[in-house]
Amino acid sequence: GTALTPAQATLLKNHTSRTTLIFDSDSAGQAAAERGFGVLLEEGLSVEVLSLPKGHDPDSYIQQFGPEKFLEELKNARPFVESYIINTIESGDISTPAGKMEVVNIVLPLLTRIKNTVERSEWVRVLTERAELDDQAILAELKNAIKQDRNVARPPTKIDERPGKQNPELYIVHLMLADKKLALQVKDELPTDKFEDSNLRQIIELFYQLIDEGCELRVDLAIDRVKEPAIKTLLSKIGIEPIPFDDQERSTNDCIQAINKRSLDLKIEEIKKQRNEALIAGESERSQQLQDQLHELRSTLMPGQIPA
Fold first, then answer.
1. Do 89 and 219 belong together in one domain?
2. Which of 60, 66, 82, 110 is deepest in the core (most CB within 10 A)?
3. Which of 114, 88, 97, 151 is nearest to 280 (CA)?
4. Is the residue at 205 inside a domain?
5. What is the three-class DSSP state of 165?
6. Does residue 273 share a domain with residue 213?
């Protein structure tokens, strides 16, 4: 038979850490590739897969095109998990929430077999990006599925879409208008590039400019300096609908901390992504350098605030 056995995988491991599966392009070949992946994964081997043109197996391809052309094709091999994710998404329907969850539940059993948490997290990221899913929600559900030995994910609840979501950037604008001393504190502790909302960032830049010019921070003065209609409208709304704070000084400190932490979290997530990609690519030195950067950034966070 052609089924890959654990004994064969053990022999392969004695000679290499990377393998490439090449099966027929029909459904039986795809199923065989999936089984082979499981066997190789259990031995800790890195697994790539090559899909030959329809109607070809390795023997027929070499017979028709020659071994050199076959070796060229091998360069197009993809990581098996990536190929599986792409094929599942292409054959599914990610235009609806139900369709997205169906894709997740097809891929999830494969992901739960990956025991390396860093590698698994990276493939979850690939899945959630390509299927346009909420990364944190799906990652949390994947962790729960593994912990509970489940191969089926439940639709995540998107708590960030709830009404009344806190917006520290908007609060900072209100607090700066409410108290000159707090406005000076914000200017000293928050660079404008840490504001994600482009409109609020422009308002903050204007406020900082007014402070430098020795002007009073007032909505009407700010509106007179603005040309963009959207920002004029936002400033008008801020002036008409002020937000009351029980403790303005504490609220200012909380908002500054929240914005600084979010900015740091984004840097950490980007470096984690680069580190995981380097790890999967076998770039151990670069992976370690990025890990050192992560450690340095994480050390600046408050205790208990370190992202996974």
1. no
2. 110
3. 114
4. yes
5. coil
6. yes
Query: How many Cβ atoms are within 10 Å of 278's Cβ, its own excluded?
Result: 18
H/E stretch holding 21 reads strand 18-23
Whether residue 184 sits in one domain with residue 238: yes
Dihedral sign, Cα of residue 291, residue 293, residue 296, residue 301: negative
Residue 234: both structure tokens together: 């936002």
Give pLDDT tens digits along the chain (308 positions).
467 888 888 888 888 888 888 866 566 666 777 788 888 888 888 888 887 887 787 888 899 999 999 888 888 888 888 888 988 898 888 888 778 878 888 888 888 788 777 787 788 888 888 888 764 555 566 666 666 666 666 665 443 333 335 689 999 999 999 999 999 999 999 999 888 888 999 999 999 999 999 999 999 999 999 988 889 999 998 988 888 888 899 999 999 988 888 878 778 888 888 888 887 877 888 888 888 887 777 666 544 443 44
Q: Are residues 211 and 290 in the same domain?
A: yes
Please give the structure tokens belonging to residue 241.
């609908």
Q: Answer yes or no: do 241 and 174 share one domain.
A: yes
For the chain, how are helix, strand and coil distributed in percent, rounded to 5?
65, 5, 30
Residue holding tokens 């029909």?
A: 26
The pTM score is 0.45
Domain's final residue, options 76, 102, 127: 76
Domain that includes residue 35, residue range? 6-76
Distance, C-alpha 55 to centroid of its chain: 37
